[in-house]
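Example 3.2
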Amino acid sequence: MNKTVTIVLLVLLSSFTQAMYMEKVDTSNSTVMKIIKEKKSETTLLKTRQNLDGSKIVTFDSSGYISLWDGTTGRSLDPIIARYIIDDKNDVLSIGFNNEGTKILVTTSIGIEEHEIVNFEVLKKINKRNNIPLDRKSVSSDGSMIVTLDSRGSISLWDGQTGAPLDLCMACYGHSFKEIPSVTFSKEETTIMISTSKTIEVLEIINPTALKNIRKHLPFGYAKKSQSSDGSKIVTLDYEGNISLWDGKTGYPLERNFTTHLNTQEILSLKFTDTGTHIIITTLEGVDNIAIEHYKDSSLDRDTNELPYCIQ
């Protein structure tokens, strides 16, 4: 009899303790949600979800923004994980986390989309440097690189550990950025895959050390660029229409302004052949094939600081 009473008391005590714990958790969640709602007072939270360990909360609001928050303090971790246009064609049905807690899962009427969670401290530095809201982002598998798409349509590459810029303008899509559902790394992580409403575009990841030096010679940047398969050469098209050749490791000039196209918008692509001996320039009018001849046993010219390459 006494044994039975003891067991009943233990069960009741366990249930009471669990109830107290759940009540405490619920109260904590309510407090955090109150903080989040105050920060999102201009919109209405349509959906919320907390991850398994309670450390993060994801929300979806009436403006279409998916946001990430600290689950214990309500601090904003990422104000724009993604943005969805709310309409009958693409309704957001649910939001949540994957089992590992590394991605945000958004279920729409079209399917399930995944959004990677980026290191918060690094993301803060990127946001400060970019100063424009980010609509899409992705992290390389080893965490060394982050690619972003901002609300002006610019694709940029960043150091995944420090947030330092590696390539501030890989491409610019302007207002059509809204038609880009994803920006990801390829499996080899040598290129960036841009999914648009019509096709998948590929952007090369070019040696950031070389690009840094190239930008010193091109203060207004470049409209297009490409690197040879062996990494030895880089070709650029600047906004004045000049096409130049650079050393792929150092970024030093090999041949400046060897040809000029007055209308840069007519140039669709700029790339090397597989052998790296020719530059292929695709325009609206056709394809130009320019041969590169390299003089053997040459050294850097002291006067021009350029290597003696010759564009045929």
